[in-house]
Design a protein that fits this description.
mainly alpha, 18 helices
Length: about 450
């Protein structure tokens, strides 16, 4: 489940978005984001082991902090992961059309996305066992396709050593540039080196190597956060105290190695600037990279891997979203109808359809750059609350040192400073609207509980 939740949009779309922001320094961003994700993953693991219920940080916030933190975590999770699901849908459709040699218009692209969303929703509605069987096949096909692509690239161009060498030099320059960044740490609008005023936000914002690196790190962090799906399924796995931490740690090790491998391979194959340019138009970055090899079957292998990977991510996101919506309905933070459990499948069917509706709204934007960046802001808030809750664990509940959660909390808050203002503004509006909703729910339905 962890691999199926992570290996998808991150490797097939977001590494190109990160490269557009930071150039070849995206490799550094991948490593920095991996450390932050590991800290957050360990916090999630020990929280899930101590309090194994469906709902993830929404439940942890309520249990270890207070209802405002709990609600904010649930609300931002719904928004962040719905945006990630919309990105996965747009990426899947783009790869599918590219593989078929079709150049659809925006309306056709969206219609295909809604058809895919409906299909996966019907699958998730059938329950976790049915979903897990489909997920295993998707992960297997994805890994085979990625390894075939990497192997063909290495046979053609050799092992990817050049990007790592360039990145070490870039890192040295970035660190030296911190002293000269001035007020860059206060900037939240950071266009990438390959951006133009037409394609990126906030003209006139600071554009330093350091700022670009941290902004790319924030975006790449989202590419790891699928491990949260493991924690949200706390009620549905055997022996969660051992299974959940082991699954999260193993997943993180595999994924960071895969991200570095594929990113370095692609940058050596076609260069950072050309790879970032693949986002324009069809947004099928790895397929366009594979075409350089001029091996027809590699193009097909990568396309099929991309489609199965991002469909798997969508499947896992729907699982996680519906379980959080279920938990929020149990506390009347969402309409209570969403807590209904189907008697035969054990699936929260109404919550699944509720998740479908939220994703459908965000899908209407039609932009992978916007949906991914929007997800970055909200998911950083979500995991900041995760780490804060982990700091409240008792000594007998704590499995890892407290400094891990402190580092995760500091990292999440720090990276929010580097996200574009054009993304922060609507994200802040969503959070504020959630607080208004929560305050109204407290006043109307359960004033005696608060």
């Amino acid at each position: 489940m962890g691999l199926g939740s992570i290996i998808g949009t991150g490797v097939f779309v977001s590494i190109a978005i990160g490269t557009d922001i930071a150039g070849s320094s995206v490799l550094i961003a991948i490593i920095l984001a991996a450390f932050l994700a590991l800290f957050n993953g360990l916090s999630s693991a020990q929280l899930a082991a101590a309090h194994p219920v469906s709902g993830g940080t929404y439940e942890y916030g309520y249990h270890f902090l207070n209802h405002w933190f709990g609600f904010t975590a649930g609300w931002t999770f719904l928004v962040a992961k719905s945006a990630s699901a919309a990105t996965a849908i747009l990426g899947t459709v783009s790869y599918s059309f590219h593989m078929a040699g079709i150049s659809p218009g925006p309306v056709t692209h969206l219609i295909a996305g809604y058809v895919l969303l409906l299909t996966v929703t019907l699958l998730v509605r059938g329950g976790i066992r049915q979903s897990d069987r489909a997920n295993r096949w998707m992960v297997l096909i994805t890994l085979i396709g990625l390894l075939l692509f990497a192997g063909a690239a290495w046979l053609t161009n050799g092992l990817p050593t050049t990007p790592f060498g360039d990145d070490i030099r870039q890192m040295t320059g970035d660190v030296a540039g911190i002293a000269d960044a001035g007020d860059a740490t206060g900037s939240i609008g950071v266009p990438g080196p390959n951006s133009t005023p037409d394609t990126h936000n906030t003209p006139g914002s600071h554009n330093t190597p350091v700022a670009s690196l941290f902004y790319a790190t924030a975006l790449m962090f989202v590419a790891y956060t699928g491990y949260g799906r493991i924690a949200t399924l706390g009620e549905e796995v055997k022996n969660p105290q051992k299974t959940i931490p082991r699954a999260i740690i193993t997943t993180m090790i595999v994924v960071v190695l895969l991200y570095l491998l594929i990113t370095a391979t692609v940058i050596q194959l076609m260069g950072a600037e050309a790879f970032a340019a693949t986002l324009q138009g069809e947004a099928a970055p790895l397929v366009m990279a594979s075409e350089i090899l001029q091996i027809s079957w590699i193009r097909w292998a990568v396309s099929i891997a991309a489609i199965t990977a991002m469909t798997g991510v969508l499947l896992n996101l729907l699982l996680g979203l519906s379980r959080v919506l279920l938990s929020m309905a149990r506390r009347s933070d969402m309409p209570t109808q969403f807590q209904t459990i189907h008697p035969s499948s054990g699936s929260p069917t109404k919550a699944v359809w509720g998740s479908f509706a939220i994703i459908a709204i965000l899908l209407s934007t039609g932009s992978v750059q916007f949906t991914w960046s929007f997800s970055a802001v909200t998911v950083l808030i979500y995991y900041a609350i995760t780490n804060l809750a982990a700091l409240r664990l008792r000594g007998d509940e704590r499995r890892f040192p407290a400094w891990i959660s402190l580092a995760g909390l500091a990292g999440c808050l720090f990276l929010t400073l580097w996200v574009e203002a054009a993304i922060w503004i609507p994200a802040a509006g969503v959070v504020l609207s959630g607080w208004v909703w929560h305050a109204a729910a407290i006043h109307i339905t359960r004033p005696q509980n608060h």
